[in-house]
Amino acid sequence: MKTALTNSFDKVFLTIEFDSANQWIYNNWVGVLPTEKVIQGCQATIDFLRENRCAHMLNDNREVIGSWNSANDWIAANWVPQVLALGLKRFAHIVSPGIFGQASAEEMVTRVGNQLEIRLFKDVALAKEWLHA
Predict the structure, then answer these.
(1) Spans of the chain, pLDDT less than 50
(2) Is the separation of the CB atoms in 47 and 10 below 8 Å?
(3) What letter does residue 57 receive in the DSSP assignment?
(4) How many CB atoms lie within 10 A of CB 53?
């Protein structure tokens, strides 16, 4: 099963799919992400997790451009409690190459605190290895 979300220009900004071989949900974020698109995408990951229960999520931001800091309050207050209730245990976040996206990810980790086992990665293989551990 796979879900794709598009922006007003009909460009895909998020693809969500269940990787049955690895038993995790893979999210691939693309482009500039205004707050409303981050929230819309995060809500879609909640809905997807509800239908495809699993304990691990691989969140790929390698194609994200810029900051998404303004969504971090919503992520901490709304997204985290919902995914925890649905059984998510580990969240591997592959950071974007740009400093603004990396700063957004670091701020997200700070806001989420120890509510969810979350780690940031620059290397996809290491992220996958951590999820398998």
Answers:
(1) none
(2) no
(3) E
(4) 11
In whole angstroms, what separates CA 23 from the centre of its chain? 16
Provide the total of helices (H) and of strands (E) in the chain, helices listed first.
Answer: 5, 6
Q: Find the angle CA(113)-CA(78)-CA(83) to the nearest 5 degrees.
A: 75
Task: State how far the Cα of 4 lies from the Cα of 29, in Å rounded to an integer.
Answer: 10
Parallel/antiparallel/unpaired status of strands 12-19 and 90-94: unpaired
- pLDDT for position 35: 95
> Three-state DSSP class for 127?
helix
Question: Where are the alpha helices (H) located in 52-79, listed in sequence order?
Answer: 72-74
Each residue of 26-51: pLDDT tens digit?
999 999 999 999 999 999 999 999 99
